[in-house]
Amino acid sequence: MLDLYITNISSLVKTTTTVTSISDHDHGAIVANTDIDLLSTKKKPRKYFLFAEANWSRMTEDAAKFVESTLYRALHAQGEPWMRIWKMLKELHVLILIDTPSTMTSTRVDYY
């Protein structure tokens, strides 16, 4: 039998030895002591919405009221058009937050 330990960064290998006869057969095993740390990254938890549990009837009513009032304000508002649109989108986002439950993902660690 041929046992190999191959690396492309030989400076990380502290020692290599062979252990004799760990079974009834006549070959041993290679033991390599290396200086390798396990890299891990912890992912940030993120919020996601549970749209299956949303209050759709209230969201529909709120959206209809939002459209009526927003269109009126958009026609009669002063200022930059992009700023008006941005404010409208933020208001719509608040309506979604109110009517839709949410949860956070768990923090997990990915090892590389």
Architecture blueprint of SSEs:
Layout: E1 13-19, E2 29-34, E3 40-42, E4 47-49, H1 56-76, H2 81-99, E5 102-104, E6 109-111
Antiparallel strand pairs: 1-2, 3-6, 4-5
What would you note in describing this structure?
- A two-stranded antiparallel ribbon has the order 1-2. Strands 3-6 form a two-stranded antiparallel ribbon.
- It is built from two helices and six strands; from the N terminus they run ββββααββ.
- 36% of the residues lie in helices and 22% in strands.
- The longest helix has 21 residues, at 56-76.
- The mean pLDDT is 80.
- It is elongated and about 90 Å long.
- By secondary structure, the chain is α+β, with helices and mostly antiparallel strands.
What is the count of β-strands? 6
Our count of domains comes out at 2
Tally of separate helices:
2
Strand order of the largest sheet: 1-2
Structural class comes to alpha+beta
Give the ordered list of helices and strands. EEEEHHEE
Supply Rg: 31 Å
Strand content: 15-25%
Query: Percent range for helical residues?
Result: 25-40%
Q: What characterizes the major β-sheet?
A: 2 strands, antiparallel
Unreliable residue runs: none
Shape: elongated
End-to-end separation: 31 Å
pLDDT averaged residue by residue: 80
Note the main attributes of this structure.
two-stranded antiparallel ribbon; 6 strands; alpha+beta; 112 residues; 2 domains; 2 helices; two-stranded antiparallel sheet
